[in-house]
Here is the input.
Amino acid sequence: MKPMVLIVGRESLIGESLISFCKKSEHPFVATTRRNGQFNDTTIYLDLTDDPCPWRIPAAVECAVLCTGVTGLAACENNQVLSHSVNVDGMVRLIEHLQNRGIKIIYLSTSQVFDGNNSCVATDRPQNPTSVYGLQKTMVEKYLMAEEKNAVIVRMTKVLHPGTGRVGEWIKALQQNKTITPFLNMVLSPIHMDQVVNTLIKLIEGEYSGIFHLSGEKDISYADMGYYLVSRLGLSPEMVSTISADPSLLAKGALPKHTTLDTTRTRHELKIEARSIWHVIDQVFQETLHL
Here is the structure.
């Protein structure tokens, strides 16, 4: 019998993708939303800024995947009080509420818990964030680890999803014969959304705890990705006009030297290999064209 999973944050990209998988595979789930009037058998209301007492978590839930929160470096830095109340205070209240019920936690984290000065960072490396977002994620990570909770932490690099983000924006612009302007000095180590979902399902259905990493095998610049997309569309490299990002105009932590994480444990225990970043970008490229 597959365990019923609570997906906290059905409107997030990861939440939406996990729900889609659960529906197709008939995996029992219930998801949360902050939107009023959209409740049904698989959707319940939950707002991390609320008192947890009224939260009505179904009795059958055995595992919770925490996909919600204020994301984005600038959003967290520019709204520190609000983002802390959601990403730290509200998240810890939710974790306590769920684990008082004996519900296993899968907490989604980020490579931003590190400063980006080193590549392929190991799971046991101490966190040293430079961004507000990374600091907030670190605080919840440390809470989970210090309390020895029944929990899994999944740190991820940049997740690509068909039709969204830079890839979707750039493909649309290029198809309209518009030049794109990617950054030369901003890097990413992309993973595909299906890697995330496959990993989460294995963690939901298995007996795991501790930290797992999902990462591409190396970093590339956004300019590199832009040139690749132009090539795949058969266009001239002149459709790419590279620029350098000004650190003074960006949130702290936006320009790390590296984003890659060591995925040894993920490969060995979950049997999920790090994919070629070009394979990931090409997969998203082709899927975006077919939307």
